[in-house]
Structures are given as C-alpha cells and as structure tokens.
Amino acid sequence: MSKWVKISVLSFLRQKMQLWKFAMLMSIVNLLLYNIPFFVFVSNHSELTIFWYIFLQLSLLIVMLLANFLACYILVFLFRYFGRVLIAIGHIISSICVYFVYVYSTIIDDSMIKNVLNTRSSEALPFVSWPLLLTILLIGVVPAIYVLVQKIDYGTWKRFGIVLGSVIGVVGLFILLNFNRILWISKYDTELGGLLMPWSYTVNTGRVLSAMHKANKKEILLPDGRIRNEDEKTAVVLVIGESARRANFSLYGYEKHTNPCLESIGGVYALPARSCATYTTAGTKAILEYKSQRTLYEILPNYLYRMGVDVVWRTSNWGEPPVHIDEYETRGKLAKRYKEYIDKDYDGVLFYNIKQRIIDSQKNKVFIVLHTSTSHGPSYNSHYPNRFQKFVPIAESVEEGRSSKEKLFNAYDNTILYTDYLLANLIDSLNSIDQWKTAMLFVSDHGESLGENGLYMHGVPMKVAPKEQYEIPFIVWTKNDFRTIKNLSDEIEQHSVFHSVLNLFDIESEVYDAELDIFER
Hints:
Blueprint: H1 3-14, E1 17-18, H2 19-34, H3 36-45, H4 50-104, H5 110-117, H6 121-124, H7 130-149, E2 152-153, H8 157-177, H9 182-187, H10 189-195, H11 199-214, E3 226-227, E4 234-241, E5 268-274, H12 280-288, H13 300-306, E6 310-315, E7 327-330, H14 331-337, H15 348-351, H16 354-359, E8 365-371, H17 398-401, H18 405-431, E9 437-444, E10 449-450, E11 456-457, E12 471-478, E13 492-493, H19 496-504, E14 507-508
Parallel strand pairs: 1-2, 4-8, 4-9, 5-13, 6-7, 6-8
Antiparallel strand pairs: 3-14, 5-12, 9-12, 10-11
Helix pairs in contact: 2-4, 3-4, 4-7, 4-8
C-alpha cells in the first residue's frame, strides 16, 4: 500500500460520518457480503411473471436494506460504542454462517441453532479449515475492525425520531404492497428466515433460548408400571445410531455390500422407519419418549430405572434428554477403563464387555443404551478404524466430497460397514448368554444428505427435508424368537422403541400403546 493510499484511508477514518450514512453503509455491506444466498433462493423458487418477480425482488431488497439500516441505527444511537461492538461481532458471526450456507447448503433456522448449542469442540473442530478461516478474516474481521474505528456523528434525538419514523413508514408500505405474496412467503418462511443475515441466527437463537428457559427442568413422571415376570432374566440393548440413513444399508437393498455381517445372521429384521426430526436432540428424544410432545415427560431409561431395571448408558454422542441413572459413561471414560481394547478410540469401546456386564448384573432385567456417533460428518473417515476402509478412494471431509460424489459415498459407506460389524458382534455376544432372553434394537436418530439436490449432512426442517434425512434403519434381533415381529406394512416411527421395549421386559403400563409396539404380545 502506497504512502498516499495510507494517508487517504486514515483521513477517511478520522472524519466523522453521520450515523445515518454509517448505518446505510453497514446495511449495504451486510447485503452484499451475507445475503446473496437469500436472493438466489427467492430467484430459484419464484413462480411469478417477470414483472411481479422483479417487483418482489426489489421490494425484498428495499425492506432488507431498511431493516438492517434500522437495526444498526438504533443500536449505535442508543448504545454508542457498545452497539458498535455488537455489530462487529455480528459481522464475524454472519461470515461464519454464510460460509456454511455456501459450502454445506445450511439453513440457519432454530433446528440448526439447537445443533450448534449442542455441539462439542470435538465435533466442531473437523469443520475448521483454511477456507473457513480466510472467509472469517476477509468478510468478518475486516468489516468488524472498520465498525470499531470509524468516527461517528451520532446526531440528535430529533433526527433520530425523524429517521426512525420515516424508515418504519417505508418498510410498512412495501410490506403492504406485497401482501398478496403472503402465501408464498409463508410457504418458504423457514428457508427465507434461515438465509436472512443477521436475523436468522439472532431471532432463532432467541427463540431456542426462550424455549429452553420455559422447558421443564425436571420431566413429568409417567404412571407407575409393573414388571409382570420379575424372575425371567431379560437383557435388551438399544443402539442409537447417528446420521445413519436407510438408503446405504444393503439390508434394505443398497447395491454396495455394506452389511455382510448382519446378512449372515438369522433372525435379523430390517424394518423401514422414519425419524421424527433431522437433528440429534429431537431424534434422540423421539426414540426415548412414549409419544410426540413438546413437554418433557419421563424418558425410557429413567422410567425403567425407576421400576428397578438395571440401566446402563454408554455414549460417544450428546443431545439426549436428561438421563437420571447411576451408570452413565462416556467413550473417553470407557477408553481409560478398557485400555486393552484395540478400538478404544472409536465407538467399538461402547460395545466392549457388554456380555460380562449383563452376566454380572445383580438384577434380572438389564437395559443398555449405546448412543453412537459412527456416521456423523463432516469427516466420516474419522469414525472408523482403518481396517474398515473397504470402499476407496474416500473423501476426508464433506467439503472435499463436493467435488467427488464417489469419494464421499465411499467414506460414508465405510461407517455403515463398521456399524454392521459392531451390531453383528453385539448380537453374537447376546446370543451366547445362557439362561437370558436377549434382544437388540438399532435405530438411527435421523438420516443424512450426501449431495442430493445440493444438500449435505442433516438439519433441514422436516417440512422440506429430503427423504435421505428422515428415512432411517430400524434393525431388530431377538434370541431364539424371544419375541415375534408383527406383520408390519407401514413405516415405523421412532416412538415404537418405547413401547416395544416395554413388551420385551413384560411391563404393564398405562402409557403402553400396542399399536406402536413392533412385537406380538
């Protein structure tokens, strides 16, 4: 940068800018840097004539510019420098969001905010890349620094009132002029709101935090249940899969041989199922609750534990409702205990020594939940040992997989191959326990997109989600026909787990629903 350029830049920054000019500049910057995907979406989904299409785009452009202008103007006028700090932070957050919108076709709705709030550093680190860091620097940090150093003439309260009233009037006028587009906007409200920066993450974060605050801190207890055959030794293992989509299991007809182990075991049933959501927290909750509901009622492990069942929870994941039992163990804790296990850094450690744990139980009823993370992106290859890398070549991340669908599918399919191995070994262990009736259920929390329609991973709102994100596997095995599977013709829902497990333990309860039970009774 030449001496004269430096002098010009410094001179520009030293000059006081009227607040209304500063707010409009920030609004334009916000539009150009972070909101192009919004207008691309409108363009791709508009079915209007050319005149009304141009009018809609122009109206949205004006409303967006004025709304962001208004937000900036109010924040800076009322809170002065602190308001500028908030805007600077907003630039950085918006730069991160728009990166994920471009690279992963993400929509920043309340579901995605829930995902973010339930994401640990170990899950977030694989997303960090040089393109992401460069994006944050160029369109996040640079404008943020400008916001903090530019001198501003804040003006008077009189000017503030005039500007405020004028802008609100114009915004209201354009909203009225587009009132006949209300049905179209309502149809795509989730997508439009999820692409509108910074409103997407600010409004949805507020909604999620508000819902979390209002939610019951302690679940509502279910009516007491009764175990009818307390002397019968019964062990049930529920495996909650992560991002396992049904389409890639050869048990369901996938052309690649991803389930060689399970296909060789008798008595394994692969039932078609549908998830209740496309993200972990809601999907896991649906697996563990007796019916779909916003209120937090007692979940299955807590309910069984309260009835005297020996309950174990092992996890490499998170996002489940509160679990109130004595034996809750993470993969890290298990890896320290079972140092001799060769795959202790993977989900295999959750399955290790299950047989002995059941045999050593002091109770006749044992329920074990294994909450895995085997098929979670973006780095699918990091979730299985190298010896399971059968399908090659692979993509080491979703971002790399965007340029090679084959590599992305291979990496993902290897996670299903590893899942197949773990489930088959678990069945072998359960089958070898003498004098115990045993069963295994494997249900995924949701599915996964692998580039279909330009979508990757999961989290798309259910009302617009592609089938890849909600068509899930529901795999069942019972020892020596311990229970008989019903002749089911429709897709199973995740709530069937609750009622089917009650059947397996021969539990009588007011909340038991035979219609959702997959077994004969």
